[in-house]
Design brief:
Strand order of the largest sheet: 1-2
Largest sheet: 2 strands, antiparallel
Mean pLDDT: 86
Number of domains: 2
Distance between the termini: 61 Å
CATH superfamily of the largest domain: MetI-like
Shape: globular
Radius of gyration: 27 Å
Helix content: over 70%
Low-confidence stretches: none
Structural class: mainly alpha
Length: 356
Amino acid sequence: MNENTSNRKTLSMTLLGVGTILLIAALYMDFSKNYIRLGSFELRGAFLVLGALCVLAGIYFIPTILHHRAIINCIFLFPLLFTFAVTVIIPMFVGFFYSFTDWNGVTFTKMVGFENYAAMFKEPAFIWSLLLTVLFVIVNMILVNLVAFLLALLCTTKLKGVGFFRAAYFLPNLIGGIVLGYIWQFIFSNVLTKILNSPHSALATTKTAFIAIIVVYVWQYAGYIMLIYINGLATVPKDVLEAAQIDGASDIATLFKIKIPMIAATFTICTFLTLTSAFKQFDVNLALTNGGGTVRGFMGKRLSNGTQMIALNIYNTAFARDQYGYAQAKAILFFIILACVSLLQVRISNKREVEM
C-alpha cells in the first residue's frame, strides 16, 4: 500500500513537473517570438495542450483521501475551464501586461510604465467618447427598459395575435448590428429625407446622429428585453391578481402595487443587461456613423469624432493608428469602469428588491 502510494506520488510529481515545463515553454515562445519548429510544424500549440494534459493527469494521480469522483468531475470540466482560461483569463492578463508597453500589435520595444494611462486622460477625443458613452448608457437604460416593459404589458394581454406581435417585436434583435446599421443609414439618408422633404439626413449633424443611434439601439434591443419582462410577468401568481380584482383594485394599482414589486428581480436582470450592452455598443456605431461628427471647443480642441463611443475609440486606436499598447490601456480602463458600474447597479437593484 505504501509502495503503491509512493509510486503514484512519483508519477504525479513527474507529470506535474513536465506539464509545468511545457506550459512555461509555450508561454516563453509566445512572448519572445522564438518558436521551436519540427519541420514546418510549430510546437507552441502542442506544448500548450500537452502541458495542460500532463498537469491534469498529475492532479489525477495525486494520492488523496478525497473521493475519486471529485477529481473525475474536474477532468470533465477541464475542456470548458481550459477554453475559458485560454480565451478570457490568459488574454486578460497578457493584455494588462501589454498596456504598460509600446506594443504595436506584433512586438514591443520597451516598457513605458503608466505613460499610456496618463496619455488617455490628456486626449480630448477619448474623454469625449467616454462622456458620450455614459450619456448613451443612461438614456438607453431608461428608454429600452421603458419601451420593453410597455411592450411586455401589451403582449401579456388577451388581445388577438399576441404571438405575432411578440415575434415582430423580437425580430430586430436577430439582425446583426453591422447589417442593421447600414439598413438604417439608408433609411435616414434616403427614405426619411424624402418623406420629410428635408435636404439633410439625420446623420448630417452630431446631435441628430447621436439621437439616430439611440433610436436604432432601442428598436433593436427592446424586443429582447421584452421577452425577459414577459417571462417575469408570467411568474406573478394568478390567484393574487384575481384577489386584487375581487377587491376592486384598478389596473394601474395592480401594476404598481403587485406586478412591479413581484418582478423586481426581473428589473435587476434587465437593467444589468441593458447597462452592459449599451456600454459595449460598437457595431451599430461603426456602421451607422463610423463615429463621425464635429465637436467644437471641447477641451480647447475641434474634434471629428462627435458620435464615436468608447468601444469604437479603442478599436480605432488599435487598428487605425496601430497603437495597440495604448488601445489596451484604454480597454483596461474600460473594463474597470464597466465592472464597477455593473457591480454598483446590481447591488442597488438587489437592495431595492429587498425593500419592495
